[in-house]
Amino acid sequence: MLIMTTLTVRPRNKKELSAIKKVLEVLKMDFESNDESPYDPKFVQRVLLAKEEIKQGKGVKIAAEDLWK
User: Fold this and answer.
1) Is the residue at 54 inside a domain?
2) Containing structural domain, residue 53
3) Separation of first and last alpha carbons in the chain
4) Is residue 47 part of a domain?
5) What span, in angstroms and rounded, lies between the C-alpha atoms of 45 and 40?
6) To the nearest whole number, what is the mean pLDDT of the chain?
7) I want to staple 11 with a disulfide (CB 3.0 to 4.6 A). Which of 7, 16, 68, 69 is the partner?
8) How many distinct structural domains can be found in the chain?
9) Cβ distance 17 to 11 under 8 Å?
10) 1 lies in some domain
11) Which of 36, 34, 18 is nearest to 26 (CA)?
12) Given this model, what pLDDT does residue 53 score?
């Protein structure tokens, strides 16, 4: 009997992803892997750069109540 279901697995790093794939291969289970990010690479780069700038103190904090003034 063929049972089909979808599992969503969220590995935290490449090492975990590799281990999960190896386990599925050893079990001879069919699986699909979509390694493409849904985000535009330029956008991701800008977000990462902004995070780094915040760590370096290059940012401005705005209180939530001041957002709508």
Assistant:
1) yes
2) 37-61
3) 63
4) yes
5) 9
6) 90
7) 16
8) 1
9) yes
10) no
11) 18
12) 94
| Tokens read off for 52 | 């780094």
Query: What are the backbone dihedrals phi and psi of residue 52, each rounded to the nearest 5 degrees, phi first?
Result: -65, -40
3-state secondary structure the chain: CCCCCCCCCCCCCHHHHHHHHHHHHHCCCCCCCCCCCCCCHHHHHHHHHHHHHHHCCCCCCCCHHHCCC
Given a cut of 80, is residue 35 above it in pLDDT?
Answer: no
Give the percent of the chain with pLDDT over 90: 55
Q: How confident is the model at residue 58 (pLDDT cuts 50, 70, 90)?
A: very high
**Residues in the chain, how many?**
69
Structure tokens belonging to residue 36: 């493409």
What are 13's two structure tokens? 């790093």
User: Does residue 53 belong to any structural domain of this protein?
Assistant: yes
pLDDT per residue over 5-30, tens digit each? 888 899 999 999 999 999 999 999 99
Could you give the CA distance from residue 34 to residue 5 in angstroms, rounded to a whole number? 17
